UniProtKB/TrEMBL annotation:
Main location: cytoplasm
One cellular-component annotation, GO: cytoplasm
Source organism superkingdom: Bacteria
GO biological process annotation, one example: glycogen catabolic process
Cofactor dependency: pyridoxal 5'-phosphate
SUPFAM superfamilies, sorted: UDP-Glycosyltransferase/glycogen phosphorylase
Protein name from the UniProt record: Alpha-1,4 glucan phosphorylase
Family stated for the protein in its record: Belongs to the glycogen phosphorylase family.
Keywords, ordered alphabetically: Allosteric enzyme, Carbohydrate metabolism, Cytoplasm, Glycosyltransferase, Pyridoxal phosphate, Transferase
Length: 809
């Protein structure tokens, strides 16, 4: 399609008239946004259709990425970018006296995820399409995404995220592709002509209706599909009996109970609660997704025994791991394959990524609950487990080992074990994480199946996180090294030749400075706080969790504050500390930490004796769109998790790509960032992996030792509970207790001293302007390897075995 400015102007006016019977002057921003969005969708419709046609016609292998979460954010800007029509649209709209960036701000974030895992899925989709890989997303169309966070009097308050209130221009409801998902009921076995079959009766049927969103590749014709499922009643919305008796609420009870399945994203990304509704959500989208894959597969005329030659299914953590049993069920019960054939196909099809080693996050379901909700699936898991346990018994002749590895044990179904046994590939998300999985957490399984375990270090899409979030920097990069980095992000390394070039350093600095000023204006408008744009912007944005140690960051700030109070002339570079973090609504310690950050912010920002040197800002409602604003203005990126606890981290990569210097523990992908940039371009502190593992094994850590021997820590901890932070004594007593009486699970006190020193080093480095800028450039130059394009190429080649397909129009 040959788009010109004039054509866009005309199409836009026509569309506005068709949709709203309005002209521009009387229209609202929302209507203008919807008009542009609809137009963009219209522009991709041919590519979308042709992509699907070509996949069917050529019978290519396709991959389906199953995930409970897709944290997409906004699509207008990234769709325009990938279509290569941002400037054209901006100019066309500008002729019509419309500001494109204002329209972008109207779009709600699709916040269908908690954090890293969901955002990774979104970056992967962008890379899959941009690399012309036939691959799609499969998930849940939640009516409500991750809650919106308000801070009231320093406390987090959660507001439902009604992201669909203004409609969603990107999705298409496909009623004709709906599937039925069955819950509960009874299963009986029937022997007929010597063949055993299973009859499922008295189940509750739920209708799964798909909504498709186009996933547009960068500068190509590929448009893949993100298919999200919505739950509906199969037949009647009303129980007419109850209705005619006047029992109105009873009449719609069933409808609400069914629709609740896809109503809301669970906002907890750790501490797993064994909630029935969560398991219902999992089976709901997995069953609907696999049914729709099988349906399309058969429609293309392919024989079922070649399923794994044409289909790869990737499961994002254990959340979709019932896929193993569901695929078995369909192959055996509906396609009449033998157990052995079905098992071969299933394990060849499915691959699993693990995202955590925190034991409290490992999913397990009580047997009774599982059996009642999914009786046939449970039977299949029992049989999978029986056969697996036989193999383990045969190999080790050790019943303890059999018990330790059993998928069903101690009254629970262990989803990670099911995922490992039922797939051909198990990967961690960074080198260190995979090592820990192999050698510690899942060593049983990696000894049994050494060929399954592999590493795929996470990545981020440089299109959203550099080109879209930081257009000025992208332009400068292209001006300096040409545009090849856009499709070959590794070529960013060519920037190294300019790292000492003074002009280039100044340009890099100028861009950062400009970003900092823009964000300072945002902060002033929203919070009424004046930020010193010459201060170091020191940023920690991520979910709030004890292992991510936001408290360590706060302790550094408090220490700095007390030092400034003691010595008004303390020579430090002014700093502004930014935090952004949502706490799971039931995670009380995390919520107390938010209150602590806000109390410290209030204390410091209102203290005129220090607030020209340091300020603290808690940014409300951290989200994808806020991340795109804040990351490009960071000088310092805080990646300070307890070593071994952060599987990978991905914001560390986004910051690096935008030219920040990282202060980090050697945890997760920080290890690979450190390997890439070297000692001189990152500030590393804290315990190493073995120290942490030793403390944990020997149980010989004693946090009081640090409290008693370090007067700075004593002061900070005492002040938490004596009212000196301007709040009641009890306000932070849980944090205090956690760190002292409960012995500081994540070694905050142990790493404190080293962290303070590391910040001292940052302050010194920043003074050497040329050296600091060189560091920033070096980080950008090495960030290309963390493009999710690289990650996806590895997944495609080593796990999915999918080929690139160029779509012809
Ligand atoms: C499971 C069951 C019930 C309720 C909630 C959950 C649940 C939901 C989300 C469990 C875990 C999550 C999310 C985990 C997550 O985001 N992990 C992060 O994944 C990133 C991508 O691999 C890594 O970079 C991070 O290190 C890891 O913490």
């Amino acid at each position: 399609m040959n788009l010109t400015k004039d054509r866009i102007k005309n199409d836009f006016k026509k569309k506005l008239m068709n949709l709203y019977s309005e002209d521009i002057t009387e229209s609202s921003k929302l209507h203008l946004y919807v008009t542009l969005g609809s137009l963009v969708r219209e522009y991709v419709s041919e590519k979308w259709m042709k992509t699907n046609e070509q996949y069917s016609k050529n019978q290519v292998k396709q991959v389906y990425y199953f995930s409970m979460e897709f944290l997409i954010g906004r699509l207008l800007g990234s769709n325009l970018l990938n279509l290569g029509i941002t400037d054209l649209c901006r100019e066309a709209l500008s002729d019509l006296e419309i500001d494109l960036s204002e329209l972008e701000e109207v779009e709600s974030d699709a916040g269908l995820g908690n954090g890293g895992l969901g955002r990774l899925a979104a970056c992967f989709l962008d890379s899959i399409s941009s690399l012309e890989i036939p691959g799609h997303g499969c998930g849940i169309r939640y009516d409500y995404g991750l809650f919106e966070q308000k801070i009231i009097n320093g406390y987090q308050v959660e507001i439902p995220d009604n992201w669909l209130r203004q409609g969603n221009v990107w999705e298409i409801r496909k009623e004709n592709k709906a599937a039925i998902v069955k819950f509960g009921g009874t299963v009986t076995s029937v022997l007929e002509d010597g063949k055993l079959s299973f009859k499922h009766e008295n189940y509750e049927a739920v209708l799964a209706v798909p909504y498709d969103t186009p996933i547009i590749g960068y500068n190509n014709n590929t448009v893949n599909t993100l298919r999200l499922w919505n739950a509906q009643t199969v037949d009647k919305d009303f129980d007419l009996d109850s209705f005619s008796k006047g029992e109105y609420s009873k009449a719609v009870e069933h409808k609400y109970s069914v629709e609740s399945i896809s109503q809301v994203l669970y906002p907890d990304d750790t501490r797993i609660e064994g909630k029935l509704l969560r398991l219902k959500q999992q089976y709901f989208f997995v069953s609907a997704g696999i049914q729709s894959i099988i349906r399309r597969f058969k429609k293309n005329g392919l024989p079922i025994n070649l399923f794994d030659h044409y289909i790869a299914i990737h499961i994002n953590d254990t959340h979709p791991s019932v896929a193993v049993a569901e695929l078995m069920r369909i192959l055996i019960d509906e396609e009449n394959l033998s157990w052995e054939d079905a098992w071969k196909i299933t394990t060849n099809t499915i691959a699993y990524t693990n995202h955590t080693i925190l034991s409290e996050a490992l999913e397990k379901w009580p047997i009774d609950l599982f059996k009642k909700l999914l009786p046939r699936i449970f039977m299949i898991i029992e049989e999978i487990n029986r056969r697996f346990c036989d193999e383990v018994r045969e190999k080790y002749k050790d019943e303890r080992q059999v018990h330790n590895m059993s998928i069903i044990s101690d009254g629970n179904v262990k989803m990670a074990y099911l995922a490992i046994v039922g797939s051909h590939s198990v990967n961690g998300v960074a080198k260190l994480h995979t090592e820990i999985l192999k050698n510690e957490e899942l060593s049983n399984f990696s000894n049994f199946y050494p060929f399954k375990f592999n590493n795929k270090t996470n990545g981020i899409t440089h299109r959203r996180w550099l080109m879209k979030a930081n257009p000025a920097l992208s332009e400068l990069i292209t001006k300096t090294i040409g545009e090849s980095w856009i499709t070959k992000p590794d070529n960013l390394i060519n920037l190294l030749a300019f790292s000492k070039n003074e002009d280039f350093q100044n340009s890099i600095h100028g861009i950062k400075q400009n970003n900092k000023v823009l964000f300072a204006n945002y902060v002033k408008d929203k919070y009424g706080i004046i930020v010193n744009t010459n201060s170091i912007y020191d940023i920690q944005v991520k979910r709030l969790h004890s292992y991510k140690r936001q408290v360590l960051n706060v302790f550094h700030i408090l220490d700095l504050y007390y030092r400034l109070k003691e010595n008004r002339n303390l020579d430090i570079i002014p700093r502004t500390f930014f935090f952004g973090a949502k706490a799971a609504p039931s995670y009380y310690l995390a919520k107390e930490t938010i209150k602590l950050i806000n109390a410290v912010a209030n204390k410091i920002n209102t203290d005129n004796s220090v607030n020209d040197k340091i300020k603290v800002i808690f940014l409300e409602n951290y989200s994808v769109s806020l991340a795109e604003k804040i990351i490009p203005c960071a000088d310092v990126s805080e990646q300070i998790s307890t070593t071994t606890k952060e599987a990978s981290g991905t914001s560390n990569m986004k910051f690096m790509m935008n030219g920040s210097v990282t202060i980090a523990t050697l945890d997760g992908a920080n290890v690979e960032i450190h390997d890439a940039v070297g000692d001189d371009n990152i500030v590393i502190f804290g315990m190493k992996k073995d120290e942490v593992l030793n403390y944990e094994k020997n149980k010989n850590y004693n946090s009081y030792k640090f409290y008693n021997s370090d007067p700075r820590l004593k002061k900070i901890l005492d002040n938490l509970i004596n009212g000196s932070l301007g709040v009641a004594n009890s306000e932070f007593s849980n944090i205090h207790k956690y760190l002292l009486a409960n012995n500081d699970e994540y070694f905050v006190l142990k790493d404190f001293d080293d962290y303070i020193k590391a910040h001292g080093k940052i302050d010194q480095l920043y003074r050497n302007t040329a050296k600091w800028r060189e560091m920033c450039i070096c980080n950008i130059a090495h960030s290309g390897i963390f493009s999710s394009d690289n990650t996806i190429q590895q997944y495609s080649k080593e796990i999915w075995k999918t080929d690139r397909i160029h779509v012809d129009i």
